[in-house]
Design brief:
Elements: H1 2-14, H2 18-29, H3 35-61, E1 70-71, E2 82-90, E3 99-106, E4 110-113, E5 119-122, E6 125-133, E7 138-145, E8 161-167, E9 170-178, E10 185-196, E11 199-211, E12 216-223, E13 228-235, E14 240-247, E15 266-268, E16 271-272
Antiparallel strand pairs: 1-7, 2-3, 3-6, 4-5, 6-7, 8-9, 9-10, 10-11, 11-12, 12-13, 13-14, 15-16
Length: 273
């Protein structure tokens, strides 16, 4: 069985289209025509087999690698076996030079237990924030998060990570939740961090949801500095919308260190950022 799974992984690397052929074969064997359903079932089947064969050792042996504290270019901060998924440049500490934020991803997939305590086949990701050091002709590692960037480990949805930008000293990280099955909702979220008092503080966030069948939408926009929230609700088909404002009770500002993972902070009853 181990040799069979290994051969499937090797062949998928050599011939990317083999996945579609496997989907058709798997679906025909169980008389299922919907390829989305087939992909979901096959992914769980393979994960189950891989868990039996490798799960215990994979889960216990993995550790996030150590990152260099300084480097002349952003590639100097990428450990062996990892690659740069995305990067953004801009002045984050108001010294007039361009800093960098990079997201790195492990090249190989491994089995990990996620925040929902499910064992998933995934590629770990890390967010690194690098301040420009003109005197050293390079960068210095200022901030690191091993959990804030969502991983692409759900077979029924698109990759949740969307984009990262730096504008006017604000680091924005965007996520997009689009499910191929199991939900009609599309969710977009933007998190806004600003460097102040030696840490990256979450000063604002936007969260919008759209129902693909009814076209109802809700857009939440939070300003954690003023402790105000705007909510716009409406329907695209009817062309209606209404915005209301309220104060939010935030006792302490979240930071990149204290806000470990998106969509886990219950900022209001039934509202998660």
């Amino acid at each position: 069985m181990v040799n069979l799974i290994t051969e499937v992984i090797i062949q998928k690397t050599k011939f990317p289209d083999i996945e579609n052929q496997c989907l058709i074969f798997f679906g025909a064997a169980y008389n299922i025509s919907n390829l989305c359903v087939v992909r979901h079932l096959m992914r769980h089947f393979l994960t189950f087999i891989l868990t039996i064969c490798f799960g215990v050792s994979f889960g216990q042996d993995f550790a996030y690698p150590s990152i260099k504290s300084t480097g002349q270019s952003i590639t100097d901060f990428v450990p062996k076996g990892w690659t740069i998924l995305d990067s953004a440049y801009g002045d984050l500490n108001k010294d007039g030079t361009k800093d960098a934020a990079i997201i790195i991803q492990q090249k190989d997939s491994i089995l990990l237990v996620n925040s929902l305590e499910d064992t998933v086949l995934t590629q770990p990701r890390m967010l690194l924030i690098l301040f420009n050091k003109p005197a050293d002709n390079g960068y210095g590692l200022t901030e690191q998060s091993n959990s804030f960037i969502l991983k692409n480990d759900n077979p029924t949805m698109d990759d949740p990570y969307q984009e990262m930008t730096i504008n006017n000293g604000i680091l924005e990280v965007k996520f997009h939740l689009f499910y191929n099955m199991g939900s009609w909702y599309v969710t977009n979220a933007v998190y806004k961090f600003r460097y102040q008092q030696g840490q990256f503080v979450l000063i604002g966030a936007d969260n919008s949801s759209f129902h693909r069948a009814t076209h109802d939408f809700e857009d939440y926009s939070y300003n954690f500095l003023t402790k105000k929230r705007a909510l716009t609700k409406g329907n695209d088909n009817k062309g209606t919308k209404k915005t209301t404002w309220k104060s939010v009770n935030i006792s302490q500002l979240k930071t990149l260190k204290t806000f470990s993972e998106p969509f886990t902070w219950q900022v209001e009853p039934d509202i998660y950022l």
